[in-house]
TrEMBL record:
Key words of the record: Hydrolase
A GO term, aspect molecular function: hydrolase activity
InterPro entries cross-referenced by the UniProt entry: AB_hydrolase_fold, Esterase-like, Mycobacterial_A85_antigen, TPR-like_helical_dom_sf
Name by which UniProt lists this protein: Alpha/beta hydrolase
Native species: Flavobacterium rhamnosiphilum
Gene3D superfamilies: alpha/beta hydrolase (3.40.50.1820), Tetratricopeptide repeat domain (1.25.40.10)
Amino acid sequence: MKQLLLFLFFSITAFSQKTTIPFDSNTLGESREITIGLPPSFEKNPNKKYPILILLDGDYLFDPFYGALNYGAYWDDLPEMIVVGISQNKNNERIDDSTYDEADGVPSGKGAKFFEFIGAELLPYIEKKYPVAPFRIIAGHDTTAGFLNFFLYKDNPIFNGYISLSPELAPEMENRIPEKLSNLKQPIFYYQSNGDGDIKKIQEPIKKLDENIKQVTNPALNYKFDNFKGASHYSLVLYSIPNALYQFFDAYKPISSTEYSEKIAVLQSGYVDYLTNKYAVLSKSLGLKIPIRVNDFKAIEAAILKNKAYPELDKLAEIANKNYPKSMLADYELGLMYEKMGDPKKAAKRYQSGSQLEEIGDLTKNMMMEKYDDMISQTPKK
């Protein structure tokens, strides 16, 4: 529990940017308040692209989501994101914004306008103003959680991830959503939750929806449902946020000791392929292109050494050169390969050339020269 509370409430606000502005909407015919949270690295990395998180009920969902994301990004467990919260508590806006037709169960009146506002005005504004990755998430709570599901009714949904916290479902939603998810062509991440202390009248439709989604066999769907014991309609939000984010970005996390021991070290071969595939998933399903982490290189290196698959260090060096061309990492991996394969002369040459390049991780010029001297001492004299 202490770890959960730390996760949720530790927000690195000193290094992040949060701005609340009025947004004049032609579709709604009024000005709406939106809060934009930029990542800590935003000013330092002008070419970096960030996923977008749109928060309905931004009045009270913004801070817990923003804090969780900043904390996860601090440890590089979650990607930095641009967070956009829409204020909906003024004059009961959240109810009017979520209006739907009782007969056909689709947005109507103010709800139809709000639906168009998000897709046709707010998202284009954010994507024009900021550098964004092609991965969008939308989240809401009860009334707005039910509403966000309407975006799934489109043939080509504009959001890639849906966080539905104790949703109040529109008519037939428990049947329509699974049908739409069954026919997906693009990867979709879907999370929903409730608690055993939740509002009784909405629990049955939620559980029915969960049962129906679990019958979907579409490989494009990544789905998770949480039913928290002892959680109320409101406290379940704090339990849900980290679970949803870590579900969506499971592939983003650095290689852990568990992943290493259970998935990598047990391989007979293909250690470098495992690494490249891990980052290919980030690019394909999450739209994130990031350099391979140095610690992930070291994890693959450790598996290669453990299993004496020394020739794979050549391929690892090739990838290191693509990701960190100015660093000594590629030369180090090649030097290590020659060293382990019993060629100290070639190993010495690589360690020496690497010592002239930029230090990276725990690789230093002094260490490389020590490796060079060691290999020279083992080189047969003519």
